[in-house]
Amino acid sequence: MALVRFDVTGIGNAIVDVLSHADDGFLVENDIAKGGMTLIDAARAEALYQRMGPGIEVSGGSAGNTMAGIAALGGRGAYIGKVRNDLLGKVFAHDLRAAGVHFETRPAEEGPPTARCLILVTPDAQRSMNTFLGACVELGPEDIDAELIAASRVTYLEGYLWDPPRAKQAFVKAASLAHEAGREVALSLSDSFCVERHREEFLALVGSHIDILFANEHEVMALYRTADFAEALSAAQAHCKVAVLTRGAKGSVVAAGGVVHELAAEPLARLVDTTGAGDLFAAGFLHGYTQDRPLPACGRIGAIAAAEVISHFGARPEADLAELVRGSGLD
Amino acid sequence: MALVRFDVTGIGNAIVDVLSHADDGFLVENDIAKGGMTLIDAARAEALYQRMGPGIEVSGGSAGNTMAGIAALGGRGAYIGKVRNDLLGKVFAHDLRAAGVHFETRPAEEGPPTARCLILVTPDAQRSMNTFLGACVELGPEDIDAELIAASRVTYLEGYLWDPPRAKQAFVKAASLAHEAGREVALSLSDSFCVERHREEFLALVGSHIDILFANEHEVMALYRTADFAEALSAAQAHCKVAVLTRGAKGSVVAAGGVVHELAAEPLARLVDTTGAGDLFAAGFLHGYTQDRPLPACGRIGAIAAAEVISHFGARPEADLAELVRGSGLD
Q1: pTM of the prediction?
Q2: Which residues of B touch A (CB under 8 A)?
Q3: Which CATH number belongs to the domain containing residue B264 in this structure?
Q4: If you placed Cys at A82, which of A7, A139, A155, B33 could pair as Cys (CB 3.0 to 4.6 Å)?
Q5: Euclidean distance between CA atoms B171 and B173, whole angstroms
């Protein structure tokens, strides 16, 4: 078996976020699905950018945020994702590497520009995302570094990868390589609209390739077509080794080996912007998991990391997460 | 006299900020002057960016921040500054226009890229700035829109404009046009290193062209070469109609017509990043001034706007400043 060099390798859409405040009226006028992630083309991205308020640019992408979280917790993370060789691509690569994440995917030299996500944050701190996938459509199986996957305890895949057409081949290749190397594979369902778009493929995938499933309650109920959370939980338990289901302010549920742990959310000092909450919960959980902590402790670290990221604008951690965990009384 | 269409027109270096956390050791290792603004060339900008941590990109520039503040307070603002026609230039223009500021300066079609400022924020919330001026060196007198200046109650100039060589001609042209139209001219001294670089020219300028002088205590003492704040205050009073001197947590002093008002700082909920404190103080003061409020009220609005901007990362207001002023009991 290859030497473990990374705790987690994340694979995802490499995106720079443009965050702005907006009121609910703006979402209605511009036909934006509140709380969701909508795919948009270049023309719509340009038109929406012209109409939205002043922005801040921060590197994002669901799995990218998770890997930045792993690094901020003191873990060893790597990332695979496709940018274009342009200014935003350089910003994305800089931010991930500067966070301490290994990132060597070759940037595209031609084709669409680096992906961006126009995020409107409403006064209730909810975020509504509009993603122009740009260079992400260039990610394919040739970008999966077999040696890297074999050297990672967990390979973590974001469900959003199912949107760009060739990425799903990369996705399946990475999952297969990980299992051949005796490693584990985790998947985040990402978004309930994304689940609706790809339900049959996700169901097949969860049954065949996924050891650890991350989802919020809406996503897992969408996957199993039920309005009953308990029913969705049972289905997920039957389907994969570990199910990690988040429920916002209601906390989370971690189920494995027939045991269900119900965990409280962390107390919040401030709620500013929910962008990245799920991504950072996954980071905290996976950090604990790859440190062989008990599952309730993994969930608690996830909750601590999620609470930090929603206390400020942007989906990457600003505080020293390792320090927050040390101060939490977990050790 | 031309119709007043704008309360304030700001002229400055059009810059996108790249903000990152750093510890004091990083400043020492990289020879960065703590709390100051240092000019750097393209090679140094690239090298420093490679070494610094993950960043967030936010439109900045001292006078640009001030104009965004004027707009957030409900005032009518315009801006003159030079970007390149590139991605960061488009971001800068978008953010200013989306904030409600009139901005029509023609972007440069060739030459250096849009300016950027690498800002390291230390744990004490102090910011240390490293500016690559880029396209700002292209600003010249041909960019001064005489009709716009004549239609603005106050023309506001940042002292940083003295760094790019041709901008000072633009600066003097704008001040002359404003006075010919019966308007007022305000200057911010910007930075004590900047004052050291241009002291003699600033002294001549303040004596001949400036009605309202903004400075912090370090800058005004640097200008008049004294270690005694009271002496600097006297000199500034003799030199210009209104002197607005900020002293950080000690509050501010507003002197005009032989009367000196000492004003307290606003109580702070959180101190995160002092970037933009002086810019937003000037915005609040000028907003009150152009609404014909008494000078102590102008200073109070300045303090409210400054307190908001230092409570979060970045130099542009995030909260509704007009609402904060309404809630302050000033009316």
Answers
A1: 0.94
A2: 20-21, 49-50, 52-59, 68, 86-88, 91, 94-96, 98-99, 312-314, 316, 318
A3: 3.40.1190.20
A4: A139
A5: 5
